[in-house]
Write a structure and sequence with these properties.
Number of helices: 18
Helix content: 25-40%
Radius of gyration: 23 Å
Bound molecules: flavin-adenine dinucleotide
Strand content: 15-25%
Largest sheet: 8 strands, antiparallel
């Protein structure tokens, strides 16, 4: 498929000076994603700098029925930001201004291309806190975070991106701009339209700016690395910590011993913080703004949990360097798995109480399917969101052979997830990775409604086609 030359020249003009490239070398890094799973194609990369330029681009695409794919930091893990042949790629990276930071009103208005870490830094300078935190925060953008409804490690306390969005500015498929950017805490003037675009993965509109909630900066932060005998004990510890702190736990991350061993073996400057190995670990963090003496509370809680067998050992970080070292263990898990051959990944959620049964049953099913396969379930236990990664057997077969079983492994894991009332995509979205699975796992009436919304907001199907919903299929 090719794009008509006159459409290309109109789009280049609309994107403004320095707002486009047709050089394959410049475009190439935007066509592959982080895991190297998808290779896209596009003859034209547009990089507009203003909302008005985005609006002009969209109007032309709509008129010419030219598909367009928005891209932020290109850190998405389901291939949503990767274009198919004949599609225009729209980078929002030059819409990168923080339009307003209102410390008194506890909000910030950031354009879509602002890097998440940059917003965190600017909030910090104003003595405020923006709590969204992902391992990709140095590259991912606010527009991408909104469009994937990003989660990360602080969801337990502060919610997903959806909970952090007060308002949005969105360019519709036909180029109209909808201004929903008021930073109000309360606004019951009809349907809450901004919600439609959060988590829509660029299929319903292009997010150009977001008004976001800020929070008081945490004063005290307590980070503990805790050994627990099993996942059920980890959940008991979560409840004990939440009760003891009055809900101040912000992160509660589960790690299995095999995962920690992979990190210690392959990631430089890491060491086991505890003397004896344990089957499971939790990285827990709690924060407070005022004079709560959080460390004392957490220490008492850990001592009590040790007394009743829920905890076997624990260490609390005593410096920022130690805290960073503990987080490095957690954040290196995915990378460490790369050195162990192929890894088949899942981003699933089940009710928190069902996590122990999920991990046990999925483990049995996977090992029955591929004897010797090594499940490494880890992640946001406090949200019931487990990154259920499966590493290839240590001594059997090639990586390619193992990865060829991706869909078979998905099928047995999803089967357990669905039986437990869970979701096959907890935080990464649908993109192209799970687009074929969605109709099998979602209520048919919900799929019909999604199709109706898509048809209303993008009647000609130009916005990121083939992502989230397959065109013309149920
Ligand atoms: C190491 C690593 C760790 C990660 N950890 C987490 C995690 O803990 N939690 C989590 O939720 N995710 C995580 N992710 C996934 C990813 O970082 C998030 O999905 C992030 O929100 C994507 O932002 P981005 O700017 O890179 O978007 P992109 O990857 O560029 O795009 C993602 C999707 O949003 C659409 N899009 C982008 N910008 C816009 C816009 N302005 N308007 C409309 N649509 C748009 C794209 O078309 C695509 O469908 C991780 C990724 C990596 C590589």
């Amino acid at each position: 498929m090719s794009i008509q030359p006159d459409v290309i020249s109109r789009l280049k003009e609309a994107a403004g000076p320095h707002g486009f490239t047709e050089d394959p070398q410049d475009i190439a890094p935007h066509l592959v994603e982080w895991r190297g799973r998808y290779q896209g194609r596009s003859p034209l990369l547009l990089k507009p700098r203003t909302t008005a330029e985005v609006a002009r681009v969209l109007a032309i695409c709509n008129e010419a029925r030219t598909p367009i794919v928005p891209q932020g930091g290109n850190t998405g893990l389901v291939g949503g930001q990767i274009p198919f042949d004949g599609e225009v790629l729209l980078s929002l990276s030059r819409l990168n201004r923080i339009r307003k930071l209102d410390a008194l009103g506890m909000s910030a208005t950031a354009e879509a291309g602002v890097i998440l870490a940059e917003l965190q830094r600017e909030a910090d300078k104003a003595d405020r806190y923006f709590p969204l935190s992902l391992a990709s925060e140095g590259s991912c953008t606010i527009g991408g975070n909104v469009s994937t409804n990003a989660g990360g490690v602080n969801v337990l306390r502060y919610g997903n991106m959806r909970e952090l969005v007060l308002g949005l500015e969105v360019v519709l498929a036909d180029g109209r701009v909808v201004d929903l950017l008021r930073g109000l805490r309360k606004d019951n003037t009809g349907y809450d339209l901004k919600q439609l675009f959060i988590g829509a993965e660029g299929t319903l509109g292009i997010v150009t700016a977001a008004a976001l909630r800020l929070f008081p900066k945490p004063g005290e932060r307590v980070t503990a690395f805790v050994a627990v005998p099993d996942v059920k004990s980890a959940i008991s510890l979560l409840h004990a910590m939440q009760e003891a702190t009055g809900g101040l736990v912000s992160a509660f991350e589960l790690m299995p011993r095999p995962g920690l061993q992979m990190v210690l073996a392959h990631i430089s400057q890491t060491h086991d913080p505890l003397a004896a190995p344990s089957p499971w670990y939790v990285l827990a963090e709690a924060t407070s703004g005022g004079d709560v003496q959080l460390q004392d509370i957490i220490e008492r809680c850990l001592v009590a949990a040790t007394g009743n067998g829920v905890v076997t050992d624990a260490v609390i970080a005593t410096s920022e360097t130690q805290r960073a070292a503990l987080w490095r263990l957690r954040e290196s898990l995915s990378e460490a798995q790369k050195y162990e051959g192929g890894s088949i990944k899942h981003d699933v959620s089940v009710p928190v109480a069902a996590v122990p049964a999920f991990i046990a049953e999925a483990g049995e099913a996977v090992v029955k399917l591929i004897p010797g396969a090594r499940p490494v379930p880890f992640g946001h236990l406090g949200d019931g969101n487990i990154h259920y990664n499966v590493s290839q057997p240590k001594d059997g077969g090639s990586t390619a052979e193992f990865l060829a079983r991706w869909h078979d492994v998905n099928a047995v894991v999803f089967d357990v997830v669905l039986r437990m009332g869970g979701s096959i995509s907890a935080e990464h979205g649908i993109g192209q990775l799970k687009v074929a699975d969605l109709p099998d796992v979602k209520d048919p009436v919900a799929i019909e409604l999604m199709r109706s919304l898509k048809a209303m907001l993008d009647p000609l199907g130009i916005l990121n086609p083939g992502k989230v919903l397959l065109p013309g299929k149920q």
